[in-house]
Structures are given as C-alpha cells and as structure tokens.
Amino acid sequence: MLEVSHLDINYGTKRVVSNLGFTLKSNEIITLVGPTGCGKTTILMALAGLLPISKGKISTPKWVSDSKNHIPTERRNIGMVFQDFALFPHLSVEQNIGFKIKDAKKIAYWLDLLELNDVKEQKPTELSG
User: Fold this and answer.
1) Fold of the CATH domain 2-75
2) Which residues, in sequence order, are CB contacts of 27 under 8 Å at separation 6+?
3) What is the pLDDT of residue 127?
4) Cα–Cα distance between 98 and 35 in angstroms, integer?
C-alpha cells in the first residue's frame, strides 16, 4: 500500500503540486495523466525519493517520508523508469545493469534475459536507440 496525503512539492518558491492525496492498495495500479507541465513527473520523482517534499507525507507500511524525515530512494522499494532513459554514459551496459547489484549471477541473469550479452562491454553512446 502507498498513501500520499496533503502533498505539496515546490521548486524554489513556486508550488507545482498542491494538497495531493490518494491511497494505492497493493493490488492496484495508478495512472497519472495531464498536460505537459502539470506535475506528473514531479509527483513520480517525489514518490521515488528523488525530489524533496515541502508539506504532507508519503508512506507505506514500512516507512513514512515527510518534509522533516526524508527516506532515501534506495530504502523505498519504489521503481521508476524515466522516459528519457537515465543511463550512466561512462559505464558499460553490464556496469549500468549491475550498478546497485552486487551478485554477478543476477547481473548475468539480466544480461541473458534482455539478450544483451553481445553488447555488454559497450557504452550507451555506442548503441542505437
């Protein structure tokens, strides 16, 4: 379960999300829709812990994050796939996949599953889109 209550997010002095609230049960999926610039990405980045919140709280049964108690991204167990592919340009495909993975078997698993073994030594700039 994920609960968002009275959430405000600011960029400097400009408020971009105001008083957002919703509850997402473990078997539910949510979709954010709206025009460009309405705050969809900002909300997702705050949920993932990539942006600080100004007011309100984001919580799960395991943690609560608010403006005074920021829970780091790596402790949230929330994933996000950026629409512009946030890869480390200086790392190889294998290093990007294994960035937070210590187990070489898991890295090998993902390389196999994604059929990337042939390009695992290449950097993102050496691959086509």
Assistant:
1) Rossmann fold (3.40.50)
2) none
3) 84
4) 35
- Tokens found for residue 116: 């990337």
What is the layout of strands, in order, in the sheet containing 55-59? 14-24, 2-11, 55-59, 64-66
Three-state SS for 4? strand
The SS3 of residue 23 is: strand
> Structural domain boundaries of the chain?
2-75, 93-126
The overall pTM is greater than 0.70? no
Tens of pLDDT along 3-30?
Answer: 999 999 999 999 999 999 999 998 888 8
Contact by Cβ (8 Å): 122, 111: no
Q: Where are the beta strands (DSSP E) in the chain?
A: 2-11, 14-24, 55-59, 64-66
Q: What is the pLDDT of residues 65-85, one digit of tens each?
A: 999 999 998 899 887 766 666
